[in-house]
Amino acid sequence: MNCEVCQLKELKVEHFEIREVLRCILHTIVFHRALGLLRPKDVDLELFEITYVQCGDVELEKKIDEKIDHFVSWVEKHPNKKSQICLSFYEVKSKQPSWFANKTERLYWEQWYVNLNVIQHPKRHSSKSHHTKVVVDPRESANEERSSHRVMVEASLREVLFQIIKFVNEKKDHLPPISEGVIYFPYEITIPSSSDSAFGMDMIKRMLHSGHPTMLS
Amino acid sequence: MEMDREPGKLEQIVSQFRSKILHVILESRVPSLHHQQQESLSLSRVRKTDKWFNLVLGDRPPALENLNFSLRNLLDPMVIDIILVRHGPCSSSVDNLYAPSAAAAGPSTETVIERWVVQYDCPRVFATPSGAEAAVSYKKIYKKCILLLRSLYSQMRLLPAYRIFRQLSLLSQTYNFDLIYKVSSFSHPFSREEEDGMKEYNFTPVEAPPGCLCVSVTYRTTLSDFNLEPLVSLPPKIITDYVGSPTTDPMRSFPSSERGAHAISFPSRGLRSPSSIPFQRPHSWSSGFHRGIPPTKTQSLAGSPPAYRTSCKPYDISSPPADLFGNRIQNHRVSTLQQATAYDEYKLSPPFSPSASPSTPTYLTGANPLLTRHCSETAPVTIPLPLTGRSTRYLSPNSSDPSRHSLPPLSPRSSKHDASSQESPSGIRSYRKIEALRAGESPSGLSNLYSAPKVVRDSKDDSGRFSGLLSSSGSPRIGFSRSSSRLSFQDDMDDCEFSCPFDVDDVDVSDSSRTVKTQRAKKLQNLLHSQIW
User: Which intervals of the chain are annotated as region Disordered (chain A) (predicted)?
Assistant: First the structure.
């Protein structure tokens, strides 16, 4: 089975925007891969004028929030760094138990990479133009910059959501059959750990399980 | 055996797929349908229709069932237009309180901001499916339909029209625009100008041999060039100083009473000439339809059943291609104006009263004769006794309650209970829920939803353009518009009695007569005294 990979467009976000952005993206992806009977739940973002859809599963919401908390902690320790969160869907396959391996293995059939560039809000200082006598109010320019940043992030987030919709529409054949009583496919969220090497090891492990080289685009 | 069963199943999937898509689109573009859905979603049970495509949306409004019935030919495309109606500038905000917004406002403009097209695209030549194609089970088709519906549901919330829908869903504000919809099996192509500001998105078709299910949307990329703004609404004012008020000096003379003026609470101003009131609010079930349809064409359709009905047969994938698809091939594209067989405005019976269908949209048949007759009358408002037949259903069931109409039409209660919107009491709850959701809270319970701004909203809706089928009956706005329309009935009903604190005439007469009698008595007394002395 092919493992389809989707690299989402990179988002430049500030620290306080991480939770909302990640919640929006992760829930949107899971909603499109939740093919069991569900009651969609519309959620309005507080920071942006975007409404996304959740499955309405409390357990799922809790798990995603937990992962986001871990990610935020990691970001605090590694500021101003680009990071990647991987949301993978897999099938559980049983295999011949051996001395080294488990009885079951995870066969990854889809991976989503959420690319974030967490930026610090640059410090503002009063800027006096040398060419004019007008003194720019630092607070005003800070507000303007914040507002334009907000607009930019909102537009980018909307693009990412459209990207998700486009991908789920185009790639349908690789999905496993829907199991009775299951709302969403088994998934796994991988965040950068304290050491980047560990994250890399996770990636290699996944590649081995999926049986195909990861198609990084 | 499997193959024999598959065509029936496929037909069922295609049919339910279309219904589901229609439901998804309208529930996120038509506030009243959305409110009804919110209410039905609050119940824990899952209905049979919810199970289709594993997407629980709540009760399907009766209007949708009617639409599905009239567009049940699965091979015909289903075109859903979301239309933005902008009202012209009005003279004053006070007018908005007491007069239908359409009456107070200038001419309104309509723009199609979204066009959804759902069709089953069939090949020109039917080819007997090979062994491999025959193996494509309906299960795969069903799964892909689920995926498409998920992405459609998300996309509805990302397109620009969703913002407008959310604004209109808020009851705390009234706007100078409305959203209506039109569902048909053909559509007028966009002009070059219209196309310039629009973008098209095609969902990946779902293969359903011998054809495929296609869903596409053409939408305006931005709505910022429309002057969409909230209307200024005056806060409610409780008038305590009225004739008959316990706090008012009974001997006080009111300037208006001397002139025999009329009740000020109710929109006597609303009764204007047909030219100024575009009481073009069509019948509630058809108010969603585009006025642009030429009357002659529509009326000719109304007179006879649509051709597709006579030739409609169960969709049978196993039938020989020429018999079933021969006359469909040239009609499977909606971009061209189709033969006028598939669109029938009048066959979509109202959700609450089939008998009401003869009350055709007045905009097509000319001015409302009742309004024509009573345009100049400014008699006090009277509340009629409950009417029988379809009129009752057309009017608010609360019309018989004079107490409800002793005050300006503040309360949506007076307008809400329409047979087509059985969920209206819960609609209030759902209104509140939406507001609570906006505030980030989880919806809970009932709360006081009756506030003055709703008066403005109600009056605005007398244009009757707020999303056709159910919203016209489900929302308080349409109820108010019904109240307004009822005025025309009321004026005609001379035998109705009405006691209203604002009805100055009766009280004026008694007061003035009492004053005259007192004066006469005094004069007599003076005369007597003078004679004696």
Answer: 127-148
Instruction: State pTM to two decimals.
Output: 0.59
Going by the DSSP 8-state scheme, the letter that residue B345 receives in this structure is: S
Chain A residues contacting B via beta carbons under 8 Å: 28, 31-32, 34-40, 42, 44, 46, 49-53, 158, 161-162, 164-165, 168-170, 172, 175, 177-178
* Per-residue confidence (pLDDT) for residue B113, from 0 to 100: 94
Q: What residues of chain A lie within 8 A of the CB of B154, using their CB?
A: 28, 31-32, 52-53, 161, 164-165
Name the residue among A32, A39, A51 with its Cβ closest to that of B150. A32
Q: Which of B313, B297, B403, B388 is nearest to B345 (CA)?
A: B297
Judged by a CB distance cut-off of 8 A, whether residue B43 touches chain A is no
pLDDT in tens, A29-88: 999 999 999 999 999 999 999 999 999 899 999 999 999 999 999 999 888 888 999 999
Per the prediction, chain B carries an average pLDDT of 59
The answer to whether residue B56 neighbours chain A at the CB level (below 8 Å) is yes
Per-residue pLDDT at B155: 96
Average pLDDT over residues A115-126: 72
Are B36 and B59 within 8 A, CB to CB?
yes
The whole-angstrom separation of Cα B412 and Cα B173 is 15
Beta carbons of A40 and B55 less than 8 Å apart: yes
CB contact under 8 A, B54 and A36: yes
**% of chain B surpassing 90 pLDDT:** 14
Tell me which fold the domain A4-95+103-119+143-198 belongs to: Cell Cycle, Spindle Assembly Checkpoint Protein; Chain A (3.30.900)
pLDDT greater than 90 at residue A196: no
**Hey, are the CB atoms on B157 and A165 less than 8 Å from each other?**
no
pLDDT of B466 strictly over 60: no
Say if residue B285 is exposed, middle or buried (CB neighbours under 10 Å; 0-12, 13-18, 19+): buried
Instruction: Considering only the beta carbons, identify the residue of A49, A52, A178 that sits closest to B163.
Output: A49
E strands, chain A, are: 4-7, 11-14, 41-44, 51-54, 82-94, 104-119, 127-128, 135-136, 187-190
Please report residues of A whose CB lies closer than 8 A to that of B150: 31-32, 34-35, 168
Beta bridge partners of B184: B79
Whether the CB-CB separation of B510 and B250 falls below 8 Å is answered with no
Confidence of residue B167 (pLDDT cuts 50, 70, 90): confident
Give the span between the Cα atoms of B189 and B115, in whole angstroms.
10
pLDDT given at position B209: 80
Instruction: Please check the confidence at residue A7 and state whether its pLDDT lies above 80.
Output: yes
Q: Determine the Cα–Cα distance for residues B85 and B180; give it in Å rounded to an integer.
A: 7
Give A6's contacts (C-beta < 8 A, 6+ positions apart).
A110, A111, A112, A113, A163, A164, A167
Alpha carbon distance B123, A14 (integer Å): 52
- pLDDT, residue A189, reads 94
Task: Give me the percent of chain A exceeding a pLDDT of 70.
Answer: 77
* A chain contacts of residue B166, beta-carbon cutoff 8 Å: 51
Chain B residues within 8 A of A32 when measuring between CB atoms = 147, 150-151, 154
Pairwise CB contact (< 8 Å): B147 & A158: no
What is the predicted ipTM? 0.84
What are A93's strand-pairing partners? Answer: A105
